[in-house]
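for the recovery benchmark. tokens below, seq after
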């Protein structure tokens, strides 16, 4: 299946590992030119080298960028313009979670979580908005979480910030479509990551294999599919929503949780 993105330019924030890296990999495999960014130069260079080994003809630009710094995002956008002429798709992936109940959540965590979730999108959007508006397929696609609709008490600050991001992106979808920019999100459930692999290495029962161990966690959390998501799976959803394949879709929040959702 073609995503109709050959020779198109995609920008992926947080693109050096996990879902971001898998998204870059999928974009490149379908012929897109890709600019990825992250804060860690070594991780970026390792990701770029890995992708070039797999796709020797790939057209890649890897730049350090802090999405919470508007000037850094502007510099990244300038580099994309100089290398590729402009962006068609912006995929905002930078994010993290703060694990704590109400009484263990300091004021600073509420502020930092909200700042990251909102300005982690607003700063890149501000830098690339004019480029996206010039494109005939302009799109902004955000990585969000099921927490936006299904909050968890042990991640109270992150849940609230995720809900704010969902509200903001829905509003953006109505405003930016006037400039031809579609805005969509995916809502993640639990996805395999380096963090889960590290927890596996510290498991209580060394005789348990990965599939058995992670399956037990999925079943305990009530994921109907009996496993965590693979990073490639949200990556496919992101590329679909960012691409012309979703040309009549804006303001959507696509659930990628393996049935973990408990709401209508």
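predicted aa per position
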């Amino acid at each position: 299946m073609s995503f109709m993105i050959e020779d198109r330019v995609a920008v992926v924030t947080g693109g050096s590992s996990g879902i971001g890296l898998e998204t870059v990999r999928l974009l490149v495999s379908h012929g897109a030119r890709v600019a990825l960014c992250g804060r860690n130069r070594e991780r970026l260079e390792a990701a770029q080298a890995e992708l070039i080994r797999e796709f020797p003809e790939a057209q890649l630009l890897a730049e350090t960028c802090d999405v919470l710094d508007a000037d850094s995002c502007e510099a990244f956008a300038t580099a994309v313009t100089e290398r590729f002429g402009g962006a068609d798709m912006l995929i905002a992936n930078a994010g993290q979670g703060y694990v704590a109940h109400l009484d263990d959540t300091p004021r600073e965590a509420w502020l930092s979580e909200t700042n990251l979730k909102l300005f982690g999108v607003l700063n890149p959007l501000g830098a690339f908005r004019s480029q996206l508006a010039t494109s005939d397929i302009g799109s902004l696609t955000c990585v969000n979480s099921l927490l936006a609709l299904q909050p968890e008490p042990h991640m109270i600050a992150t849940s609230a910030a995720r809900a704010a991001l969902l509200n903001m992106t829905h509003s953006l979808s109505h405003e930016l479509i006037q400039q031809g920019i579609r805005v969509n999100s995916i809502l993640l459930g639990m996805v395999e990551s380096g963090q889960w692999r590290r927890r596996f290495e510290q498991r209580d029962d060394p005789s348990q294999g990965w599939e058995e161990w992670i399956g037990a966690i999925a079943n305990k959390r009530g994921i109907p599919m009996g496993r965590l998501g693979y990073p490639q799976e949200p990556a496919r959803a992101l590329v679909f929503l960012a691409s012309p394949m979703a040309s009549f879709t804006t303001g959507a929040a696509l659930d990628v949780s393996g049935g973990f959702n408990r709401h209508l």
